[in-house]
Design a protein that fits this description.
GO cellular component, one term: NURF complex
Protein name: BPTF factor
Distance between the termini: 127 Å
Largest sheet: none
Biased composition (Low complexity): 39-50
Shape: elongated
Organism: Nothoprocta pentlandii
Region (Disordered): 1-58
Radius of gyration: 45 Å
């Protein structure tokens, strides 16, 4: 067996004669390990070329059109299945802005996060709160909340107003109310639960305001208060 791949002929018959025998080398022998390794390398190179060509075609199709529109069944038969698979995979796997749905829950960091403001903005916020604290209560105890649904039918709105007025009275400690308020409280609650018109709600709030001691209210409220009956 020769290693250079040339043919070896017998001396009796001569070179190229019909009875000459041909010697196989390791590269030409399909059962040898060297030939099998060479075939594997060739297959791997072909696969790499196919993958590169498919990626190039997919990028080209992606640049030309983002969506693949099929107008008739004949278009499906003319399409290459490999191109269709590559195009579908690329269109479904790519990230699209907004598909996570976080744009629906927006938070202003300048309003919720105190560390987002600089030193000058912190000073302005402190001065504003100090100025407003002389007129309004900015603590958590002074927050006003509706006791019920704000949107709805007339019956639902009236029920929300009744519950909110009663809740407002419950939040005021008894020491800040008139000493005789305990005897009038039950009748006042019954009157509030029967209110259905704006004039009736205003009367219930006026009675509650008269029962609250003036020390609870800030000077800005007493100075702007008009004549009531």
């Amino acid at each position: 067996e020769k290693s250079n791949g040339e043919r070896s002929d017998s001396p009796s018959t001569g070179r190229g004669a019909p009875g000459s025998t041909r010697m196989l080398t390791r590269l030409r022998n399909p059962d040898s390990k060297l030939c099998q390794m060479k075939n594997q390398q060739n297959q791997q190179n072909q696969q790499n070329q196919q993958v590169a060509a498919a990626a190039h075609e997919a990028n080209k199709l992606n640049k030309e059109s983002k969506e693949l529109v099929v107008s008739s069944p004949s278009d499906v038969s003319r399409m290459n299945p490999k191109k269709e698979i590559v195009l579908k995979g690329n269109m479904n796997n790519y990230f699209k802005l907004g598909q996570e749905g976080k744009y629906r829950v927006y938070h202003n960091q300048y309003a919720t996060n105190s560390f987002a403001l600089n030193k000058h903005q912190h000073r302005e916020d402190h001065d504003k709160r100090r100025h407003l604290s002389h007129k309004f209560c900015l603590t958590a105890a002074g927050e006003f909340k509706w006791n019920g649904s704000v949107h709805g039918s007339r019956v639902l709105t009236i029920s929300t107003l009744r519950l909110t007025i009663i809740q407002l009275e419950n939040n005021i400690p008894a020491s800040f109310l008139h000493p005789n308020w305990a005897s009038h409280r039950s009748n006042w609650i019954k009157a509030v639960q029967m209110c259905s018109k704006p004039r009736e709600f205003a009367l219930a709030l006026a009675i509650l305001e008269c029962a609250i001691k003036p020390v609870v209210m800030l000077p800005i409220w007493r100075e702007s208060l008009g004549h009531t009956r």
